[in-house]
């Protein structure tokens, strides 16, 4: 059976958990006649029995992400007082956090316990698709939420007319559909987001390059432009409006801005180390920075919105208090009377 060996030089920024390290040592992808292939991860090291400690830490983080996001999704869906546009968009954001973390953590947990750190090419590209769609949907959700805040603050009397339930549903569907559509075409054309792997293709990659150059700025610039425009209008209203308007803007926009900055921070470092030589940076720090937007954002969002938005925090406290009361309720024994 003939075996073709393709050597990977500068295997950078594959958007895969620990593979996201720049200028990795050259690795080989083996392709046999049946087109089966696998990738070898060089980010892992022999940690001995510490791998079980790492497994518990990562598993605990994943459990925290699932618990926090599912709790807020249930709170929003169950309580009719939270069936408002802002909370519906939040629900979509929390679903995306579950989606993105599920695209990372199960494979990461398996790799931590495994002695051989390899992954098949189909699973590799499936994870690339999940992580790409997560990032695109995250930015799109944040853009839609900024538009919602713009209407609520700048047009309070017309808000419910402009942001009807039908329009809310349409915006949520459009957010997810556009994210999946763009990344589906991107993966089918480019086969991987890393340009150094695209250059290994035997066929002409002109179409891939053109689509990448057009789609990438659009995916980033369109949501960012909408966010900047809406916040410029919100700031203008705040400076010229009443104290009550400013308080409303601060209370509702602060968690959104914090979430946007946190996500941008993680993406900035991921893009930075994919474009520049980061060999001088310690490997563990590079791994942390590569994983930041996939691990910290799904924890940051539910905690930020759950603690800062009064309606959600009060509802969560009522649920927790009700659970404590139910758990501590004692049943007195029935007395027998003769």
TrEMBL record:
One of its GO terms (cellular component) is plasma membrane. Its main location: membrane. The keyword DNA-binding does not apply. It comes from the Eukaryota. InterPro entries: GPCR1_Superfamily_Member, GPCR_Rhodpsn, GPCR_Rhodpsn_7TM, Olfact_rcpt. SUPFAM superfamilies: Family A G protein-coupled receptor-like. It is found in: Cell membrane. Residues 68-305 form the G-protein coupled receptors family 1 profile domain. One of its GO terms (molecular function) is olfactory receptor activity. PROSITE patterns: G_PROTEIN_RECEP_F1_1 (PS00237), G_PROTEIN_RECEP_F1_2 (PS50262). Pfam families: 7tm_4. Keywords: Cell membrane, Disulfide bond, G-protein coupled receptor, Glycoprotein, Membrane, Olfaction, Receptor, Sensory transduction, Transducer, Transmembrane, Transmembrane helix. The chain crosses the membrane at residues 52-75, 87-113, 125-147, 168-190, 210-232, 253-272, 284-308. The keyword Transport does not apply. It is a multi-pass membrane protein. Belongs to the G-protein coupled receptor 1 family. This is G-protein coupled receptors family 1 profile domain-containing protein. It comes from Maylandia zebra. The lineage of its organism: Eukaryota, Metazoa, Chordata, Craniata, Vertebrata.
């Amino acid at each position: 059976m003939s075996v073709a060996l393709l050597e990977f030089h500068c295997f950078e920024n594959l958007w895969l958990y620990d593979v996201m390290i720049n200028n990795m040592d050259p690795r080989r992808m083996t392709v046999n006649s049946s087109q089966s292939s696998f990738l070898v991860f060089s980010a892992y090291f022999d940690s001995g029995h510490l791998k079980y400690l790492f497994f518990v830490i990562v598993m605990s983080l994943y459990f925290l992400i699932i618990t926090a996001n599912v709790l807020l999704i249930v709170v929003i869906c169950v309580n009719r007082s939270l069936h408002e546009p802002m909370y519906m968009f939040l629900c979509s954001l929390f679903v995306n956090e579950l989606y993105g973390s599920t695209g990372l953590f199960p494979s990461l947990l398996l790799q931590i316990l495994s002695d051989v750190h390899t992954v098949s090419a189909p699973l590799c590209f499936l994870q690339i698709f999940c992580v790409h769609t997560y990032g695109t949907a995250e930015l799109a959700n944040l853009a839609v939420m900024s538009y919602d805040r713009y209407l609520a603050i700048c047009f309070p009397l017309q808000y419910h007319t402009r942001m009807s339930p039908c329009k809310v549903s349409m915006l949520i569907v459009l957010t997810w559909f556009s994210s999946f559509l763009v990344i589906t075409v991107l993966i089918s054309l480019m086969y991987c987001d890393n340009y150094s792997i695209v250059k290994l293709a035997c066929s002409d990659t002109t179409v891939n390059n053109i689509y990448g150059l057009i789609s990438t700025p659009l995916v980033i610039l369109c949501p960012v432009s909408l966010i900047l425009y809406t916040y410029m209008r919100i700031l203008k209203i705040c400076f010229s409006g009443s104290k009550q308007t400013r308080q409303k803007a601060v209370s509702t926009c602060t968690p959104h801005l914090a979430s946007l900055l946190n996500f941008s921070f993680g993406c900035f470092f991921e893009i930075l180390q994919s474009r520049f030589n980061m060999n001088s940076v310690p490997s563990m720090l590079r791994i942390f920075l590569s994983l930041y937007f996939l691990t910290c954002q799904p924890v940051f969002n539910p905690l930020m919105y759950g603690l800062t938005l009064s309606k959600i925090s009060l509802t969560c406290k009522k649920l927790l208090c009700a659970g404590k009361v139910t758990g501590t309720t004692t049943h007195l024994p029935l007395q027998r009377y003769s």
